[in-house]
Structures are given as C-alpha cells and as structure tokens.
Amino acid sequence: MSGSGAAPAYDGVPPADAARRLLVETSERGTTPAGGAAEAVGARAADDCRGPGGPTCTGRGRPGVPLRVTLALGALTVVVGSTVLALGSPSRDPFLAAGDTAAGSYLATRADGDQAAAAVLAGPYKERPAPPVTARPGGGRTAPLPASRPLIAAPAAPSPPIGALFSPGDDGDPTHHCTASVVHAPAGDLVVTAAHCVHDGGFRTRLVFAPGLHDGIAPYGLWVPTRIHVDPRWISDRDPDHDVAFLRVRRAGRADGRIEDITGAERIRFDAPAGRPALLTGYPVDRDSPVSCRHTADAQGPTQLRFPCPGFPNGTSGGPMLTDLDRATGTGSLIGVIGGLEEGGDDLTSYSCRFGADVAALYRRATSEPGPRPAQPGSRAAADGVRPRAAPRS
C-alpha cells in the first residue's frame, strides 16, 4: 500500500483496473512497513488519504515525496479517473444500506445476519463452545499496567469479551476487518467498535462478531447485529471525534441472546483523565489471535487520545483501550477504541476519540431502545428480509 509512481497490478489485472481497485480499497488500518514495526519507529509509512465521501483513510501520510513524483501521481490520477468515468459508474455494493441517517441508526434483518454468519462458517472458521465466563468483578482490585518492554504490540492471549469483526461478502473469503468488544449494558447485548468499521458510505449489512477468536475457533459463538448506532455527524462528514459505534447483537441463528452472560463485559467509563496507564488490544487482519500493548493514553488535544506503541496494523481498528484491569476477570474500564484521528492512526501511534458527553449520549441511545421483536411467521420480513439498499458510492 506504499505510494509509488505507477499503479501496481493485482494478479494479472490490467494497470488501469488495478489503479481503480486502489481507489476503492477500504483498509481499516495501516500495515507494517517492510522490516517490521520495530524498524518503523521514527518514520511513518506511506499510503493514500482520501477525503470525505471517499474510501477509508488509513491515516498514513506521504512525507518527503519529491515534487516530480507528486506531479506524476496527479497525472496518473487524472488518467485513471478518466478511464473509470469512461467505463461507467461502479456497481452498487449490495451489502450497504442507508439506514436512518438523521438518527444514525440501522435496524438489521435476521436474514442478513444469519447469512453473514453462514459465510464465516463456510470458510476456515468453526464454532467450538467454551464454558461461559463465570468470574465476577474482583471488588476493585486492579492489576498493574507497566509499559510494555520492548514498546511494541506483541501476541496476547485471547480475552473472552474482545474479538474479531467480520464483514463477509460473496467471494468466499470471510477475513475479519476490524476488532470489537463487549461492553456492559442493561440488556447484556452491546458491542462497541469504531464507526468506520460499520459505516462507510452506508451501514454494512453483513457483520459478524467472534469474541475470543483464536486459531480459527469461535469459542463463544458468532454474534450478529440487531441494530447499529453511530453519531449522525460521522455519517455526514466522517468527523473523527465521533468514530465510535455501538451494536446490539444476538446469537446467529437465534432471535436474541445475551452475549454478556457468556463472555463477560468491559465496563465503560466517560470523561476519564488522560495520561493513565492503559492496555490496547486488536486483531490484525492476517491473524486469528490478538496483539496488545501497555502504555499511557495521552491527550491529543481536547477531543482525542493517543497511544504511542507500534505494531497495530490492518484489522485492529475498533480495538478497546482499557484501564483499571480487574485481577479476577481481566476486564477493564473502556475509555476508547482505535479510531478517531486519521481513522485510528498509523503503525507507530494509535488514536481514539475521547469518551465524553457525546459518546455517553450515543451509549444511552443504544441501550435505551428496546430489543428486536422476532418477525411474525408468514410476514415478508420473515420470508426474505428484503429492504431498500444504499445508493451507489462515488
């Protein structure tokens, strides 16, 4: 994904088509530069940052590019853009829906969720039940969080409330693209991630959460959204201060289910002070186990947190930032998720919008709405789950 003077080909695809694919690609995080994250310290990786309404920006800049290269890239963009226009508008994404843009919510159908879960299980993933989490909060006893040494994300043991978020299509490749975590809520059915993981030109209609994922095994089952909540300001202009989403979920193949009873949950905390020791966790797109790092969650201005630790690549967006880890359960106080500024950052630093009044209001909205009502037998929703799709993305 590094920038260069010519568009690379993908598996024999003509250069014009390959460049077009680059323009519509939606990576959720930057990837580690050649040589590993440790060698990347002090130098940002390169990538394309597109503007509002375009594909996701991974937050990697293009420092030090000579002017002649910049001009060449500009010329290439004009040529490729003309080619795309000549070929006609891109096809409509069948797995995006407009939802309620004014409220920032989307009511999912059972058909989409169950089909998405079936697509994940049709690949290399299996459900192999593990015992539900039975440990209760440890009465305020917290574990120490000294900074990681060396300061780099490293493989970590899976945690039941934290898992990988899939968005499978019809290509038979159900790769997880983001990270999410269970957060405590009265109904016991709430999951939190980054807004850019669930809304990108429309709400993703195929989402599957696999908590505690490891080695291709989903030990606590597959869970799919019943309703998705984001701030309308994310929908209107991808405001980095609102890059948070809450998902009400159910067990795939069932009408309901309390995920919190099976996995436990992180506690959510609003208006936490900056500069506190924290644990950051995420699932890289090319691994079925998490990586984590301990450091401080520092202030990046009044509305953002920064976590300077390299080694959080593609797939880690939405990963939880936790403080005050409970000794008994390993769960903590959730103060952020990888997202926000530069849609999560780069290979050296991760960001999160601060959980203040706006995120608290979004949480209250997500938890106050009643759960889904099962479709009545014989109804059209029960028969096919058909609804209007989103308009094509530009």
pLDDT averaged over residues? 77
- What would you call the shape? globular
Distance between the termini: 21 Å
Unreliable stretches (pLDDT < 50, length at least 5) are: 1-28, 30-91, 374-394
Rg over alpha carbons? 21 Å
- Compute the number of strand runs: 19
Question: How much helicity do the residues have?
Answer: 10-25%
Biggest sheet statistics: 8 strands, mixed
**Assembly annotation:** single chain
The percentage of residues in β strands lies in 15-25%
Question: Can you count the helices?
Answer: 8
Element order, helices and strands? HHHEEHEEEEEEEEEHEHEEEEEEEHH
Decide which structural class fits the backbone: alpha+beta
Describe this structure in words.
The chain is built from 8 helices and 19 strands. Strands 4, 13, 14, 15, 16, 17, 18 and 19 form an 8-stranded mixed sheet that branches. Strands 2-11-12-7-6-5-9 form a 7-stranded antiparallel sheet. The relative contact order is 0.19. It has 394 residues and is of the alpha+beta class. α1 packs across α3. β6 and β7 form a beta hairpin.
